[in-house]
């Protein structure tokens, strides 16, 4: 911007060199004329974020998190904060507070690599073939260890004979 003020390059050339649109350096130049060198500094510099959580709220989230740390993951805990306490925070903010308190993310379930140890069955009754068709149940058998689908069929209703 000092080269623009000295008249050595145009505002358009300066914008291209610093990778901004033409209008942004134009706004900066106007602020520099009004405020001097201070106009080059961003207006929010040194101010606290309007989205920050005050210390009382942070302490409350931290205390509640310690009570239920094993039961909830970050997303579930965030939802319960909003429902029960009326504290609206993002999942990322809650996660950051919990990591600062030494509460790590909930560990994923250990995945078994052997096939056939346990097969899980699930049925989903629905009007699969349109609103005017007869409702039926989509039955699925899935290997719990590998996550592979063992069998899938449509049946008139959900029952254990559908998994055989």
Short structural summary:
The chain has 164 residues and is an alpha+beta fold. Helix content is 37%, strand content 14%.
Which short descriptors sum up this protein?
single chain; 164 residues; alpha+beta; 6 helices
Question: Could you characterize the architecture of this molecule?
Answer:
- By secondary structure, the chain is an alpha+beta fold.
- It has three domains: 2-40, no CATH class; 55-100; 119-163, no CATH class.
- It is built from six helices and three strands; from the N terminus they run H-H-H-H-H-H-E-E-E.
- The chain has helices at residues 2-6, 11-18, 23-35, 55-67, 74-85, 91-100, and strands spanning 119-126, 136-143, 149-155.
- The chain has a three-stranded antiparallel sheet with strand order 1-2-3, with no helix packed on it.
- Strand 2 (136-143) and strand 3 (149-155) form a beta hairpin.
- Helix 2 (11-18) crosses helix 3 and helix 5 (74-85) crosses helix 6 (91-100).
- It is elongated and about 85 Å long.
- The N and C termini lie far apart (76 Å).
- The relative contact order is 0.08.
- The mean pLDDT is 84.
Global Rg: 30 Å
Query: What percent of residues are in strands?
Result: 5-15%
Please, how many helices?
6
Unreliably modeled segments: none
- From the spread of the alpha carbons, the general shape counts as elongated
Provide the structure class.
alpha+beta
Element order, helices and strands? Answer: HHHHHHEEE
Number of strands: 3
Nearest-integer average pLDDT: 84
Major β-sheet strand ordering: 1-2-3
């Amino acid at each position: 911007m000092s080269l623009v003020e000295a008249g050595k390059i145009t505002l358009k050339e300066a914008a291209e060199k610093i990778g901004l649109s033409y209008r942004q350096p134009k706004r900066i130049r106007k602020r520099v004329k009004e405020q001097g060198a201070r106009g080059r500094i961003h207006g929010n510099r040194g101010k606290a974020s309007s989205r920050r959580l005050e210390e009382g709220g942070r302490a409350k989230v931290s205390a509640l998190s310690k009570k239920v740390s094993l039961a909830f993951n970050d997303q579930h805990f965030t939802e319960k904060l909003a429902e029960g306490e009326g504290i609206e925070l993002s999942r990322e903010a809650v996660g950051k507070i919990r990591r600062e308190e030494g509460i790590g993310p909930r560990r994923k379930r250990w995945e078994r690599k052997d096939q056939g140890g346990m097969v899980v069955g699930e049925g989903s009754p629905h009007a699969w073939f349109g609103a005017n068709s007869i409702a039926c149940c989509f039955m699925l058998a899935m290997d719990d260890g590998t996550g592979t689908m063992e069998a899938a069929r449509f049946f008139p209703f959900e029952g254990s004979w559908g998994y055989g």
